[in-house]
């Protein structure tokens, strides 16, 4: 492939370093494609080990899926150890989260309820939510190892069921169901699109981690600040460098971005699956990878920042933290005032976000303002503008983050953790335990860097892939360790 490019003569081939990995006395080299936090952590770790690293980023700035929030909620080191490791090593300033934002709360019919308010004022809804929590926890507890969630036949069968089907069986009262739907679509995707095994596995990962640990601090400046800290450490980062092809042979890799070619010993592809599909790979991916690349479900989540000249909520109102509404407004929170105003970030998720794709930005902001105005009658008068970030239709993302659909956990388990010769993969979607988060993205970068080092050292990497049911017993049949009747009810 490299030869063909040179013959074409229309662009320059820059040799990052010798292609010969066998020449161990030379500095090893890697190209990292994508400067989200996954690519940045991979590059940082490799550079720290003495590698020559070139990061290529399609956009004008590094950072990837930085949200509209100007201040990110982050967990403590118990909940997000890798994120906290980098926050500490880069000496980034964090602020402790106020107590009242550390647990989820609710907006029902325009009225705000903390979890404890709900118990007092809407006991039926609170009880139904507790029943949902308990059922989900039972599912989570049935998974011994979240790194191998389909360890038995029954768990394997959970992957064939949608979360919506399971919720139907719980028969929650209407308000509770709306709030649960909202919680699931905000964190993952629409319940009707989500694998129950994925929800159970994720709940198992966070089992025993308190909400208060997950929402322990704010990172002023958001994840962009973390990305900037990485960038300051990196020697070679090229922005506006959209990679269009990657080819590898026994000697090395060649990566093309615009009119420029780069060569190195290894490449880390740290781009979301939709973006990966736009890169020509030589040799091509096999059918399994291609199918996973095209069909893996991503959650939909768009962010709308509504700006107000002054706060439109009364000073005692709590519009901050993880607030689930029964009216499809998604999660809301107040952002620190900008230019003397006050802003609300609204996260529209799941099918609420999909439906609004038909609207232009202005119409979308109007639709959200109309709904907010019903609760806060000063909203229209104080409204001064909006910003919108649509992740789901951004061709470099194609969704907000991984949210495995039915059948996809077992089919694609750890697929992208396995390097393909000189190509390693990183990105939140490649992390086994914490997909869809900064923690997962950072972990994946560390893992990919280690894999590249191991490959260079001549080690073989063999990631256990597709999950298979251990037995051929019918779905729902009792197995050792099952609670009698616990699973079978799910498969009626
Ligand atoms: C609305 C929203 C809110 C979120 N909130 C939180 C939160 O509160 N806490 C949390 O932990 N996580 C949150 N996340 C998730 C978190 O932001 C992501 O998991 C993380 O940023 C993903 O990082 P990444 O490096 O895997 O991918 P990305 O950030 O998407 O990075 C990929 C990079 O590759 C680049 N790229 C794509 N194609 C090419 C190409 N051909 N050539 C070169 N470069 C290319 C892209 O431009 C991008 O910069 C949120 C995500 C969204 C969408």
If you had to describe this structure to a student in words, what would you say it looks like?
With 492 residues, the protein is α/β, with parallel strands linked by helices. The protein has three domains: 2-66 and 220-295 and 403-456, FAD/NAD(P)-binding domain; 121-209 and 468-491, Guanine Nucleotide Dissociation Inhibitor, domain 1 (Orthogonal Bundle); 301-390, Polyamine Oxidase, Chain A, domain 2 (Alpha-Beta Complex). Helices cover 34% and strands 19% of the residues. The protein has helices spanning 2-8, 37-48, 81-89, 115-121, 123-141, 153-158, 163-170, 174-187, 196-205, 211-214, 223-233, 273-276, 287-295, 350-355, 361-375, 379-382, 408-412, 438-456, and strands at residues 12-15, 29-33, 52-56, 71-74, 95-96, 105-108, 111-113, 217-220, 237-238, 243-248, 253-257, 260-264, 266-269, 280-282, 298-299, 301-308, 323-325, 331-335, 342-349, 383-390, 401-402, 423-425. The strands form six sheets. Strands 1-12-11-10-14 form a five-stranded mixed sheet, covered by helices on one side. A hairpin with a 6-residue loop joins β18 (331-335) and β19 (342-349). α2 (37-48) runs parallel beside α11 (223-233), α2 runs parallel beside α18 and α5 (123-141) packs across α9. The termini are far apart. The relative contact order is 0.19. Bound molecules: flavin-adenine dinucleotide. Flavin-adenine dinucleotide binds at residues 33-39, 56-59, 64-65, 67, 72-73, 242-243, 270-272, 275, 278-279, 301, 303, 391, 396-397, 400-401, 427-428, 436-439, 441.
